[in-house]
Specification:
The protein has 10 helices and 2 strands; from the N terminus they run E-H-H-H-H-H-H-H-H-H-E-H. It is an all-alpha fold.
């Protein structure tokens, strides 16, 4: 069966993420989701009343937080993942222009130039990586109570609790942005995106 001559052309798709990169993202998202969900059941009174085995929730929360960095560390074996980390860690003049446009709420495409990752994604990646390390460190201080003095544990608990709330808010924003961009979600799910989307959203991406 042949295609009609007047049929619209099938949009070209290009590779954005490898299978290893998608695995890192999904596994990290799952572990982060477990951490946030169990934290909510531990700290929100209305949810805490629904939990019959609080000790089990505590253990799940602790172990999910402990292994949270593992997917990223395992992903370092992937050359593509290491290359994307390099892109995320590189901030150029076009990124500063993107941030200025975002602060001014300038939504024009020409005002927000971006490479493979835009400036917002770079800032988010850096922030969530730092927050994860702080959460891990403070969580360990709270877990091994016999290794540190009381003032350290009290400070760690304060930082851990308030940073957890901030992480939840930032993650909600991240999910909201993803829900508003179906093609970006498709790229993370299947590994490929349309060439039109790439040219429109990431015009400086050298593919």
């Amino acid at each position: 069966m042949s295609l009609r001559a007047d049929a619209p052309p099938i949009p070209a798709r290009i590779r954005r993420f490898t299978r290893a990169e998608r695995w890192v993202h999904r596994t990290t998202a799952l572990l982060m989701g477990v951490c946030v969900l169990t934290a909510a059941f531990l700290y929100v009174p209305q949810l805490a009343q629904l939990v019959g085995r609080r000790d089990l929730v505590v253990r799940v929360h602790e172990w999910a937080g402990l292994v949270l960095p593992v997917p990223v560390l395992a992903g370092l074996a992937s050359r593509a993942f290491r290359a994307d980390l390099a892109h995320l860690n590189r901030f150029g003049p076009h990124d500063r222009r993107w941030l200025r446009a975002a602060l001014r709420r300038d939504r024009r495409r020409e005002s927000r130039p971006a490479g493979k990752f835009n400036a917002g994604q770079k800032v988010y990646a850096a922030w969530i990586a730092g927050a994860t390390l702080v959460m891990l460190g403070t969580g360990l201080l709270m877990w091994f109570t016999h290794l540190t003095p009381l003032v350290w544990r009290t400070s760690a608990t304060f930082v851990h609790d308030w940073l957890a709330l901030t992480v939840g808010i930032v993650l909600a924003g991240h999910i909201g942005m993803a829900l508003g961009d179906p093609e970006a979600r498709r790229g993370m799910r299947t590994g490929s995106v349309s060439a039109d989307w790439a040219d429109r959203e990431h015009p400086l991406w050298r593919r």
